[in-house]
TrEMBL record:
Spans traversing the lipid bilayer: none
Protein name as it appears in the record: GDP-L-fucose synthase
Record's keyword annotation contains Isomerase: yes
Organism expressing this protein natively: Favolaschia claudopus
Annotated PANTHER family: GDP-L-FUCOSE SYNTHASE
Record-level Gene Ontology MF annotations: GDP-L-fucose synthase activity; isomerase activity
Keywords from the UniProt entry: Isomerase, NADP, Oxidoreductase
Taxonomy, superkingdom: Eukaryota
Taxonomic lineage of the native organism: Eukaryota, Fungi, Dikarya, Basidiomycota, Agaricomycotina
Family stated for the protein in its record: Belongs to the NAD(P)-dependent epimerase/dehydratase family. Fucose synthase subfamily.
């Protein structure tokens, strides 16, 4: 008898959870990135249980009896929140992760993949970033609470494997963007923040002003591409060591190129400029995707402008329901 597979996605209504849902619903069944026959996918939201609480986490596992878990849930925030609430980010994420890992062990989950972030890497490090450098120095001061909590997942994965033989692993994506992002101007990452700002400038007929020089370089991964790679990991990647999920180092894009693409996608025709009195942040922090390409083989990433265009169209069409931080109801 074939055992039914149940894949539980925590944080299932966020940027990556929604992308996974899209891929599972649109890729052909049984294909490399598609769902399997006899497989149920559950996209759990925070409304289904507070994962900081072990009892509520256990209840979630008892309800769905997952055979596989993709753990995306986290307390996340932009730079300002990370700096202001270091202990909250540290403690809440440690609790969430510890509960998910332990529930996956006690409920005999076949496989668990947790999502980390490139902020786990040391502040002072030789580039490019690779999977062996995670613990080779302290993370950046601005988000050390969040970064340490995420690092501990890697430590726990190794410990669960060594002590109990658990198949637990983790993924480290670079900067993710796509539909269903967080567009709250107080707290959003660079692409959704710029998309929202540009949208408002067009709507209100005001100038579009971008902080910094536009020169820093970043690697961005489209959420739909990342979702395919999570499905691939679920099926084919069984190593406890983390793996960076990213476009190549040669795919870095400057903030100016990002802004130009956003201006084009939004159809903004007003005046746009860079406020060079504002700080730029790190010039570049490239990560290598060599391990990914060695393990997966060649992967066809969506061209940046095409992915951005799709993301902007989604935002414009769904402005009223998107996470903008704006109270749009009178």
């Amino acid at each position: 008898m074939v055992m039914a597979t149940v894949v539980l996605v925590t944080g299932g209504t966020g940027l990556v959870g929604k992308a996974l849902q899209h891929i599972i619903e649109t890729e052909p069944v049984g294909s490399r990135y598609g769902k399997l026959p006899n497989e149920t996918w559950i996209f759990a939201s925070s409304a289904e249980g507070d994962l900081r609480d072990p009892a509520q986490t256990n209840k979630l596992y008892e309800k769905y009896k997952p055979t596989h878990v993709i753990h995306l849930a986290a307390l996340v925030g932009g730079l300002f929140k990370n700096m202001k609430y270091k202990l909250t980010f540290l403690r809440d994420n440690i609790l969430i992760n510890d509960n998910i890992l332990h529930a996956s062990y006690t409920h005999k989950t076949t496989k668990l993949i947790s999502c980390l972030s490139t902020c786990v890497f040391p502040d002072k490090v030789e580039y490019p970033l690779d999977e062996n450098k995670i613990h080779s120095g302290p993370p950046h001061e601005s988000n050390f609470g969040y970064a340490h909590a995420k690092r501990m997942v890697d430590v726990q994965n190794h410990a669960y494997k060594e002590e109990f033989g658990c198949n637990f692993t983790s993924a480290i994506p670079t900067n993710i963007f796509g539909p269903h992002d967080n567009y709250d101007l107080e707290d959003a990452h660079v692409i959704p923040a710029l998309v929202h700002k540009c949208y408002l400038a067009k709507k209100n007929g005001t100038p579009f002003i971008v902080s910094g020089t536009g020169k820093p370089l970043r690697q961005f991964i489209f959420s739909y591409d990342l979702a395919k790679l999570f499905v691939w990991m679920l099926r084919e990647y069984d190593d406890v060591e983390p793996i960076i999920l990213s476009v190549g180092e040669d795919e870095e894009v400057s903030i100016k190129e990002v802004t130009d693409a956003i201006v084009k996608a939004v159809g903004f025709e007003g005046h746009y400029s860079f406020d060079t009195t504002k700080a730029d942040g790190q010039f570049r922090k490239p990560a290598t995707n060599k391990k990914l390409l060695d393990c997966h083989g060649a992967f066809k990433f969506t061209p940046f402008e095409q992915a951005l265009d799709l993301s902007v169209k989604w935002f414009v069409e769904n402005y009223d329901s998107a996470r903008t931080g704006v109270n749009k109801k009178p």
